[in-house]
Design goal:
Elements (H helix, E strand, L loop, with lengths): L4 H17 L9 E7 L17 H12 L3 E7 L5 H6 L5 E5 L11 E16 L17 E4 L13 H8 L1 E4 L2 H9 L5 E5 H10 L7 E17 L7 H14 L1 H6 L5 E2 L5
Parallel strand pairs: 1-2, 1-3, 5-6, 5-7
Antiparallel strand pairs: 3-8, 4-7, 4-8, 4-9
Length: 266
């Protein structure tokens, strides 16, 4: 049956909107699942500014293309605010998380995503500098991202503690931290292997000026954390991730950033 002219315009607009969102047009009755989107490049990039770049939007789009029962939507939050938003139900899910990062006392279900990244130390390349340069942080000026939990600091993200104990400069930009190291204004920056790969792609001249450590501060074994009352269960979400893994979608999204994709052991 052909829609009437007025209804046809509305129908066409709905189809275009659904295509732009990456959501099947017939999923009008899908249940919304709200994923907290905090600035964590290259996973999520400035969501509070309406940016749609990063790996999380690609993952949400792939989940929405896969099925029609749920509509995964991104809700901007922040590194510091994400715990409260989760507990108060403003978000249903925190993603690319580690249960050690302050979640211990917050009720949640956890789903092993089978994704691994690593945080590495980065210094300016210099004559005679060996891998042993990274063995000790004593006396070195660190450039860190404000609010992040670092293993070398016992996952203590308190800015005062990091400034006092590690002479840290805290910023809200990994690019700034790496450029500070490159310019000699800091000795070491910490970034994920995935971010460094993206940075060097955008700044090819930095390849000969920066060196990454073989020492790893922490392995990011990514989990999705769901509220106990989330509209999707941990088991169902794990099943969707499994389908994306089997189809090769997870590899397509994450492998270019040197993020390993594997079947979860549990």
């Amino acid at each position: 049956m052909t829609p009437a002219p007025g209804r046809k315009a509305i129908f066409t607009l709905s189809m275009l909107t659904a295509a732009w969102l990456g959501v099947p047009a017939w999923a009008a009755d899908a249940i919304d699942v709200k994923i907290g989107a905090a600035h964590f490049p290259p996973y999520t990039v400035r969501p509070e500014q309406g940016a749609d770049t990063g790996l999380l939007p690609q993952l949400a789009e792939a989940l929405n293309r896969l099925q029609t029962d749920y509509r995964f939507i991104l809700v901007p939050t922040s590194i510091q605010r994400r715990f409260g938003d989760f507990q108060q139900g403003r978000t249903d899910m925190a993603i690319f998380e580690n249960p050690q990062w302050g979640w211990q006392q917050i009720p949640h279900q956890q789903v092993d995503m089978g994704l691994e990244d690593a945080e590495v130390f980065v210094a300016r390349r210099a004559n005679g500098r060996t891998p042993g340069y990274f063995d000790s942080l004593g006396g070195k000026r660190l450039a860190l991202f404000n609010g992040y939990h670092y293993a070398f600091a016992g996952f203590n993200s308190d800015p005062g503690y990091l400034r006092q104990v590690y002479s840290a400069t805290l910023t809200y930009s990994h690019d700034s931290n790496l450029l500070m190291v490159q310019a000699g204004r800091a000795d070491i920056a910490l970034v994920t292997r995935s971010y460094l790969s993206d940075f060097l792609t955008r700044h090819p001249d930095s390849r000969n000026q920066l060196i990454a450590s073989q020492r790893i501060d922490q392995v990011y074994h990514h989990y999705a954390l769901l509220r106990p009352a989330a509209p999707i269960s941990g088991r169902e979400f794990a099943k969707l991730l499994g389908q994306l893994r089997e189809s090769g979608e997870l590899t397509r999204i994450f492998q270019p950033y040197r993020i390993s994709v594997a079947v979860p052991s549990d």
